[in-house]
Amino acid sequence: AHAKISMRLVPDQDYREIGRLFAEHFRSIAPRSVRVDVKVLHGGFPYVCPTDLPAYRAAARAVERTFGRKPLPYYSGGSIPIISTFEKELGVKSVLLGFGLDRDAIHSPNESYGLENFLRGIETIVWFYREFAAGR
Length: 136
What we know:
single chain, mainly alpha, 4 helices
């Protein structure tokens, strides 16, 4: 049998340590007649955007202007490993704006992305640049 297992990490977790712990646990629960090989293929460190950043506040105003509602910040299990590298190496925070919906089934065989959200995303980015440049 073969399985690919993907994990979304939270702040202060190291993908290498989590991979090691998973392998140890999986081996410990496998029947003695089963050989378990675990390969950690790749990983990245978690990133959380602070909501008190000027860029975050500009993004929130841009989203509200485009969609007519205040955005609700929430943790989301996305993987863009370069973001945590920007923070570590450059000392800068990043703001991530997503315009997809849960029903888009991202990375699945039936993935979709609505044209309306694509266009509203473009509009939001324009408002973000205006808000951020104005220092509001």
